[in-house]
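quick one, two chains, predict together pls
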Amino acid sequence: MAGRIEARLKELGIALPAGSTPIANYVSYVTMDNTVFVSGQIPRWPDGKPAYLGKLGGAISVEDGKKAARLCGISLIGHAKAACGGNLDRVKRVVKLGGFVSSTADFVDHPSVVNGASDLMVEVFGEAGRHARFAVGVADLPANVCVEVDGIFEIA
Amino acid sequence: MAGRIEARLKKLGIVLPNPPNPAGNYVPAVRAGHILFVSAQGPIVDGKPAYQGKIGRDISVEDGNAAGRIAGLNTLARVKQALDGDLDRVKGVFKVVGFMNILPGFTQMPRVLDGASDLFVQVFGDRAKHARAAIGIAALPQNLAIAVDATFAVE
């Protein structure tokens, strides 16, 4: 199954996580026809521990928020891979990302934070990685992480 | 391309705006099968934020509703663009999610988001009646009052 996208991930030095287990009564992804809906992913270190705790506009800088969003994106790709039976070459398009940024009430640079995930999708999938999106600021997130990203993929 | 919906817009006195450019590394809309996912749109007019601040403190519910309508107009402009200018290809509106910039304690999100929901039904009629979520959030890009995220059924 080592295809084009796997080679690209290797080139970028990205190792996909084994896939986190949902922390409540839901599943990591649902496939409907050729569309895969992936549950919101939080940033995790390679050992699975939540990463980048705190708020944008508070303890977390935009640069760190962006790194955190990239980690969310890596988890999203990990689940997309599972949805594709291990073959990421089946991803036809990254359709949409939803970015929830833990924010103080006066933080306004959510787009730069969520770009951490968006840039990753374009790096990995090229033109097919260009997606629709929202980026909003929320009051709190699970485990006090600074960002959560969910995703929709179209697969062949 | 001047079809049925264009005639309806004209009758309503609605001129679709030039929608703002994406604020980050994303595109305005992506189609997957018969579903068109439109990126969240804000109350931006001629490239500038028209309503900024917290609804309920800096912005009245009525103005929030007006902001929601502008976000809806920007959404329709993106839909038109994605459908090569032919809004008659819209079969319905699946879902609208409204993110409203508020402080804790504000609860009038539904009245605010009706600005966008009413617009869609005015333009497309009953087939635009949609599922919806109206939520208050801590902050938005550019301190916008509202962001509207909508998904359409298209031919």
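Chain B has a mean pLDDT of 96.
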